[in-house]
Design a protein that fits this description.
single chain; binds FE3-S4 cluster
Length: about 270
């Protein structure tokens, strides 16, 4: 049996950057928290926990800042997906006013670019559209940067339904811009653009799918096409992993998703 490993497998640049920042913070002392799960990898999250890295939610920000005001040394790490603008600003203020508090904003530069696009292309007379999963933290963070109306569509079908509904603006009545969640499936994104351009011919397109995502998806598709079985290793909660699984499954029916070494051991691959 020949086993081939995708050349783009492993942590992407943005995730590596965030994990390295958290690791470096460990040697600085004080309490360290990540706002939400740092990455979608249970094994790694567990190892951070064992080394004393806690996890807080948006609701904990005030109390953490209060403790830092009381003299406790605290570091908060922002994950690569980015955070809601309001929470980020609160933490930035806390960090500016308090020497005991350190903010490590590890939002991936590619995600920050989409956040800037959302801010610059929303507001009076504009409509910003994002193709992505509405509940994903990256998407919620990007949409929080809009200065006016913004819409999120999870698929070309959803976009098309909205375009044919009475809620869609008449062509030419607003300036429309469209961007994608960084891990969006390339084929779905292309379908969305084709549909949007039929009605909103002047829509401005920002191709924001991350290069890493694009390279991975292209390689996974080619590998799946040539393989008898494919194993995608990653978390079910990771947008990247789920998209890779869907792409491979569409090319190779014997595609399996494994979250860790244990589930890999239990996997029975058909002959
Ligand atoms: Fe990773 Fe940043 Fe791309 S987090 S998938 S390098 S957008």
């Amino acid at each position: 049996m020949e086993i081939r490993v995708a050349s783009h497998a492993g942590f992407c640049f943005g995730v590596r950057r965030a994990t390295e920042a958290a690791e470096a913070a460990l040697s600085g002392g004080g309490r360290i928290y990540t706002l939400g799960r740092l990455i979608h990898n249970d094994g790694y999250i567990q190892s951070l926990k064992e080394r004393g890295v806690g996890e807080i939610s948006s609701d904990d920000i005030d109390s953490v800042c209060e403790r830092a005001r009381g003299g406790e040394k605290i570091t908060v790490v922002i994950r690569a997906h980015g955070e809601i603008k309001e929470d980020l600003e609160k933490l930035q203020r806390c960090s500016a006013e308090n020497r005991c508090f350190t903010l490590l904003d590890c939002t991936c530069p590619y995600v920050n670019k989409v956040r800037r696009i959302a801010a610059e292309n929303s507001g009076e007379g504009r409509l910003f559209i994002l193709i992505g999963s509405a509940e994903h933290p990256e998407v919620r963070g990007i949409m929080s940067c809009c200065r006016g109306e913004g819409k999120v569509f999870g698929s070309a079908l959803e976009l098309e339904r909205w375009m044919h509904s009475e809620n869609a603006p008449a062509p030419g009545s607003v300036r429309i811009s469209i961007a994608a969640q960084t891990t969006q499936k390339l084929s779905e994104w292309k379908k969305c653009l084709k549909i949007l351009k039929k009605l909103y011919t002047n829509a401005e397109v920002f191709d924001t799918i991350c290069n890493v995502t694009e390279e991975r998806q292209t390689e996974a598709e080619a590998l799946a096409d040539e393989s008898d079985a494919v194993i995608v290793i990653g978390s079910r909660g990771s947008s990247n992993t789920v998209k890779l699984y869907e792409i491979c499954k569409s090319k190779c029916n014997s595609t399996f998703l494994c979250e860790d070494a244990d589930s890999l051991r239990d996997l029975v691959i058909p002959e």
